[in-house]
Amino acid sequence: MAAMAEVISISGAAVAPLPAFAHPQVEALDVRKCYGSHGGVNALETISLSVAKGEFVSILGPSACGKTTFLRCIAGIEKPTEGTIKVDGAIVDRPPDGMGMVFQRDVLLDWRTILDNIFLPVDFRHESRKPYYRRAHELLKLFGLTGFERHFPSQLSGGMRQRAAICRALITDPGLLLMDEPFGALDAMTRDQLNVELQHIWQSTNKTVIFVTHSIPEAVFLSDRVEVFSPRPGRIVSSLAIDLPRPRRMSMRHEPGFNHYCSKIREYFEAMGLFKEE
Amino acid sequence: MGKLNGRVGSGVITVASFIVFFLLWQFGAKLFGIRPVILPTPLAIMNELATSPIYYLLQGWYTLLTTLGGFFLALIIGVALSVLIVEVKFLDNVLYAFILALNTVPKVAVAPLFVIWLGTGANPKIAIAFLIAFFPIVIDTVLGLKSVPSEMLDLASTLRGGRWGVLRRIRFPCALPSMFAGMKVALSLALVGAIVGEFVSSERGLGYVILAAQGTFDTPRVFGALFCLAVGGIVLFWIVSLIERRLMPWHASQQPRY
């Protein structure tokens, strides 16, 4: 565990190490976000972050720390108050092309069947569904949803609904996948299962993933790199490369290597005054 | 009870309860010796309807056309205005507030005014039916179009759905349950509007039949017209429910439990 790339910032701004082998797909430079006019709520405090193509980066922090806000800025749904975000070299001023997003709630449309829901991005692009049928069925098979194409979302369990939401985000084969606490509303067992499935998808498709979570084991299990956020106003406290072999297995969670990272992150949170014992 | 739980079963229960109601009425009226001019028995009303069925059908048809005319006018104009109110912030502040304020005016009280403006033909009746049906449609449609979960709009935004795309693919389907609730109320109110229009000035329609029969104390005829109105109202409501079920097979109120 000696080869651990780690940068700890002292005064707010932290620059994550950029792997030399790839050019960045997402670049955030001095991003700040305030809500309301001057003197309003300060949500994000000068965040700089660079994510390479094909990298799996988690943004980990306590609730309401601004991590979701940051992700929404990358997605182009919100505008940063200061600083710039680039995706594929272009400044984000609206949702970029080639980006798929998965939300905490599955946001499936009740009136569409599972298959129709998965085709929603295609419909919004005014494209023909035909060339996407094969991909849709591959995705459904991959996530164990074959046979549920004609079901309505209300007929599916929470885990299956979120699987369908991931299929929807992947249907147009985006290079960048943004995930905002996608498994936060699921029970622990389903969550573990989906972590394994997500890792599998990521490994076989070489997508760039930015994954927001407040679960330490989840972040360590999935990520190449974990960006630890402070409580509001959010800033990057530490950038921790997770140097564990892939594919990672659930049983790995009991191994010392895995736990080393978890306790390391826990220490950061303890240092910030979270996890008080009494 | 097992067999009575299905759709057919609940239909049987409904019909049975109506039969019991009419039986109680029939024998109650006889038992207490209520005079027909006060309350005719169901059999007397049926007899009245049977003696001149064509007359009732024609008058009922006229009232139905007025009702539907007002209703569809309210539906088209109401939905169009609702879209504008939801899409244009300025109109939300100005027009919607204005519509809400207008809604507090008792529409029925305006009916005589329409006779001055539009004469004594079908137009003033359609106008009253429209006016009275218009508000529930606008209010429920605006509510439905506005109550789209914000995550859904975020999703549409990441998918770069344009205004029209979001309206068509997200806002409208989201608003449908609420719109149908509004339409059901609006349809019953349109019928009220048509009758009020016929009360004010008419020589045709079920409202006119009621008014004319009242003048001669022909109570069975009044009840005959009321019966036609009740049946018409139920059938219209039923048709809207049928369309609702067809259009929203996903909706919780339509789905069998699994």
Task: Draw up the topology in text.
The complex is a heterodimer of chains A (278) and B (258).
Chain A: E1 6-8, E2 24-35, E3 41-52, E4 56-60, H1 67-75, E5 82-87, E6 90-91, E7 99-102, H2 114-118, H3 120-124, H4 133-142, H5 158-170, E8 176-180, H6 188-205, E9 208-213, H7 216-222, E10 225-229, E11 236-241, H8 256-271
Parallel strand pairs in A: 4-9, 4-10, 7-8, 8-9
Antiparallel strand pairs in A: 1-11, 2-3, 2-5, 5-6, 10-11
Helix pairs in contact in A: 7-8
Chain B: H1 7-31, H2 42-51, H3 53-87, H4 89-103, H5 111-118, H6 122-146, H7 150-158, H8 163-200, H9 206-215, H10 219-247
Classify the fold: give the CATH topology of chain B.
MetI-like fold
**Which sheet architecture does the biggest sheet of chain A show?**
7 strands, mixed
Query: How many angstroms separate the termini of chain B?
Result: 19 Å
Oligomer: heterodimer
* Biggest interface between chains: A-B, 25 and 23 residues
Q: Which parts of chain A are unreliable, with pLDDT below 50 for 5 consecutive residues or more?
A: 1-15
Binned, the helix content of chain B reads over 70%
Secondary-structure element series of chain A:
EEEEHEEEHHHHEHEHEEH
**Rg from Cα of chain B:** 22 Å
What's the helix-strand series of chain B?
HHHHHHHHHH
Q: Total domains of chain B, how many?
A: 1
Strand fraction of chain A equals 15-25%
What is the helix tally of chain B? 10
Question: Helix count of chain A, per DSSP?
Answer: 8
